[in-house]
Amino acid sequence: MDIRAVDAGNAAALAELRAQLWPEDDASAHLGEALDALERPDRAVAYLAFDAGGAAVGFVEATLRHDYVNGTDDSPVGFLEGLYVVPAQRRRGVGRALVAAVEDWTRGRGCAELASDALLDNAASHAAHAAYGFEETERVVYFRKIVRG
């Protein structure tokens, strides 16, 4: 397995994997967001995992967050924005290697903490986070109220 930073040459592979994780979004939006991250290397990063045959089998995206991040003590913190491994490659260390790349990137920006989130009902994500060494810090339910006329 080979972990590589996303660049212009492999951004399309990132967009394809993003579409598998977030199928509700338009394919062109995925490519645009992948390319956008390349233009902010001081604040965002994305890595791809490639198998021995050269196929992209997973990705991770992270940002630096300077605002308050639930459950953290410092600012800025690295924030794992998205992580996906194709089903056939799960439980083979791909996700762990991708998270390790983000940990290195986060430390390289002077951060002591890496944070993430998951939906309350996403038990598979909770288990993966625990396996990668994350600890659950809190659970939050967000509310909104429309106030425009």
Strand and helix layout:
Blueprint: E1 2-5, H1 11-21, H2 27-38, E2 44-50, E3 56-65, E4 77-85, H3 94-108, E5 114-115, H4 123-131
Parallel strand pairs: 4-5
Antiparallel strand pairs: 1-2, 2-3, 3-4
Helix pairs in contact: 1-2
Tell me what the structure shows.
The protein is an alpha+beta fold and 149 residues long. The protein has 4 helices and 5 strands, in the order E-H-H-E-E-E-H-E-H. It has a 5-stranded mixed beta sheet, with helices on both faces. The protein is globular and about 50 Å long. The N and C termini lie far apart (55 Å). The model has no long low-confidence stretch (mean pLDDT 93).
List keywords for this structure.
alpha+beta, 5 strands, globular, single chain, five-stranded mixed β-sheet, 149 residues
